[in-house]
Amino acid sequence: MGEPAGIGGELTLKAFFRRKELGLPPFFAIDDPNRLKELAERLGISAPLIIIDRPKEALKHFSDALPIIPFPLATPVEPGIPNPKNAPAVLKSIELAVNFAQTGQAAAVVTNPIHKQVLNEAGFPYPGHTEYLAALAEIETPPVMMLACDELRVVPVTIHVSLAEAVKTLTSEGIVERAVITAEALKRDFGIPHPRLAVAGLNPHAGEGGQMGREDSEIVTPAINALKERGIDAFGPLPADTMFHAEARATYDAAICMYHDQGLIPIKTLAFDKGVNVTLGLPFIRTSPDHGTAFNLAGTGAAKETSLVAAIRMAAEMATNR
C-alpha cells in the first residue's frame, strides 16, 4: 500500500496497466480497493480490479484484473494530504505482506513509499521501513540497504545520519558486517558465484597516504584485510571520484560506500527513474522504488512507475535465484 496520500497507488495501477507490454510477473496489491478504484477513475487508468482472499488466487486473475487483498483505510484519502488515522492500515499492510512472504505464500515483498513523519505522529517507533521489517523478521543483525540498477549496485555503510556523525561512527567492524551481508546476498539472490566488492575510501583520494585524513588507513584498510581473510574478493580503499565511471564499474559487482551520498549520488545520476532499494539480510526478499511519496505529484497522473516496475522485476529475479 505505502502512504495512501502519496503516489504509490498510482504507480501500482500504472505498473499493472503495462504488465503485458513490460512482461511483468504476477503480483497482487494489499490495499483499499475503493481507494484504487477512485484513483483509477480519477486518472483515467484502465485497470480492472478483483478482490482475492489468498495470494495464490492472483495467478489466475492477473492477466485480466489487478488482484487485491482488501485492506480498508480508516478515512478517505485526499491526494497529497497524509492523515495519521490511516497509519495503522499502512503498517498492518506491511505486516501482512511480510507474513505472506515468510509463510511461502508470496515470493517477495515490494513496498510502496511510506511517510515516516505521519507514521511517527501515529506512534510508529522505528526510523523507517527497513527497521520495521527487521523487527517483523525478528533478526538481531541490522539489515543492509542496497541501491541497485542495471549499471551499478551500492551499499552505504552509514545511512541516515549527518556527515559529521557518519565519520564519527564509521568502524572497521561496521564495514565488514555490511560487506559480508552484501557478498552473501550477491551469491544467493543475484546469482553471482564470486562477487567482487569495491570499497570506497572515506576521504578525498582515499586519504592520499594520510595527507587527507587517516581514517582510510586506520579504519577502511583493516576492514578490507578482514574481508580478504574471510575469502571475500574486496579491494580498495578507492578514491570515490574515480570508481563510478563505466570502465571502473566493470571491475566490481557492488560498491561499499562509507556514507549515504557517496553511494546514492552516482546511482541516482545513472538511474534516477529506475533505481531499486533492496533490503539485504532479511529472511525474505524485499524491494522498493528508490524514491519517496512525492506528495506534490499525488493525484496528478504525472508520477512515473519505472522505479516500481524495476523493483517488481528485481524481486522476481531474486526469488528465482534464491
Instruction: Characterize the biggest β-sheet.
Output: 8 strands, mixed
* Strand order in the sheet with the most strands: 4-11-10-5-6-9-7-8
What structural category characterises the helix and strand content? alpha/beta
Fourth-tier CATH superfamily name of the largest domain: Isopropylmalate Dehydrogenase
Separation, N- and C-terminal Cα atoms: 25 Å
**Mean pLDDT across every amino acid position:** 94
Strand content: 5-15%
Q: Shape, please?
A: elongated
- Low-confidence spans: none
CATH topology grouping of the largest domain: Isopropylmalate Dehydrogenase
Put simply, the count of helices is: 13
Radius of gyration: 20 Å
The succession of helices and strands, N to C, reads HHEHEHEHEHHEEHHEHEHEHEEH
Q: How many distinct beta strands? A: 11
Structure description:
- The protein is of the alpha/beta class.
- The chain has 2 domains: about 1-140 and about 275-320, 3-Layer(aba) Sandwich (Isopropylmalate Dehydrogenase); about 150-270, Isopropylmalate Dehydrogenase (3-Layer(aba) Sandwich), CATH 3.40.718.10.
- It contains 13 helices and 11 strands.
- The strands form 2 sheets. The chain has an 8-stranded mixed beta sheet. A 3-stranded parallel beta sheet has the order 1-3-2.
- A hairpin with a 5-residue loop joins β10 (about 275-280) and β11 (about 285-290).
- α9 crosses α10 (about 215-230).
- The longest helix has 17 residues, at about 170-190.
- It is elongated, with a radius of gyration of 20 Å.
- The protein starts with 7 loop residues before the first helix and ends with a helix.
- The model has no long low-confidence stretch (mean pLDDT about 95).
